[in-house]
Structure prediction request, 464 residues.
Amino acid sequence: MNWDALATYGPRMLQGLVVTLQLVAISITLGALLSIPVALARMSRSRILRAISFGYMYFFRGTPLLAQVFLVYYGAGQFRTQLDSIGLWWLFKDAFFCCVLTFTLNTGAYQAEILRGAIRAVPAGQREAAMSLGLKPRQIFRKIVMPQAILIALRPLGNEVILMVKGSSVAAIVTVFDLMGVTRLAYSRTFDFQVYLWAAVLYLVVVEIIRRVWDKLEHRLTRHLRSA
Amino acid sequence: MDLLRLLSFGPDGWGDELLQGTWLTIRLALATVPFGLALGFLIALAKRSPNRYLRAFGNAYTTVFRGLPELLTIFIVYFGGQIALQRIVGLFSDATVEVNGFIAGMVALGVVFSAYASEVFLGAFNNITRGQYEAAYALGLRPATTLRLVIVPQLVRLALPGLANLWLILLKDTSLVSVIALDDLLRKTGLAVRVTKEPFLFFGVACLIYLALSMISSIGIVAIERWANRGLRRAS
Prediction:
């Protein structure tokens, strides 16, 4: 163990970990909010809405996250005058904001696909039974379909959270000091390979915690579906 | 138009550079697959092995490489491989070694690919009924022959959807090797941006190229799946 490096960079790496978790928490939450209208648009009767949501999802699921981050972060620089005139430049010059924006759009597309699959997996009989009870379409969606769809979506959503923790490391390449960013900095100062292994351990611990917590959550939320 | 001239081929356009980068991305992805598949298959066998230590190793391998960010794996293989090789070479001579970026990228992506692929194989193994093994045993086939002639052909069909998915993920993950000085599509695009100051155009084009690659892959995957399922359609 290189204790000197650990004393200098250990606390900073933990700070970096906090930045990573912030990035993931904000993006996953905003992405979840975004995914609902997108998934609904994808299944809507309007051909235009379907086409727009399909294009959005296809683009963000088919291109690398790193390329998307570059497109937003460096691409925004090109529109500086326009962004300045609408008073948004201060946001786009911040790498953290650009990463949150890109990650939100990215995970929103993935979550919309998960949600769409889950909504379609709810048995048709549920909807028919609700209709025969005289519930309104809005009520059927909110009280019958959605609660069951979310349970079906729970497992893939957990995977998506873990993918986002891993994917968020690309933020380091556009100067965000998340865990990966601090690690790269520490390596460039100390040339000690150990720092990468510390980062690896931290990432593994985070992923494992999320996996366990998610398992508990799923177990709790599906308790009414298990036979005693 | 100016933008079109920037994307043209030749000395003042960047089309040929982007094409070179695309070619390297494709080669890297194609080189990774056989390596990752072989490794993934071995890991899957280890996870099914009666030996406790082999099983533990296989499970630990999967947990680690599915939990680490791909970017970190690439750094670890690139820098760690360099240090390890240097130590080994240092035993015999004073020569300095330089890890080839392509090989490092291939190994790192292959290791990640194999961790996911082993899970796909494991799922496929579980979908092959015991009767298949018993029938092969009753016919007097040796375990190795059973694996080769009875199990693997069915495994290919069962694992194909999962593996196709992994290929599409791999194609996108290749963009991460641009950080270890490998001239892939994204890095070439970055160079073009630095010279032309047209980030939105070039990164947009790079995204479209990645999209095109995955579209072409999807067509290929459909064809391969039709080939793998050829025996099934007749039977049903």
In short: Chain A touches chain B at residues 58-59, 62-68, 70-71, 74-75, 77-79, 162, 165-170, 172-173, 180, 183-184, 187, 193, 196-197, 199-200, 203-204, 207-208 (CB under 8 Å). Chain A has a mean pLDDT of 93. The longest helix of chain A spans residues 3-42.
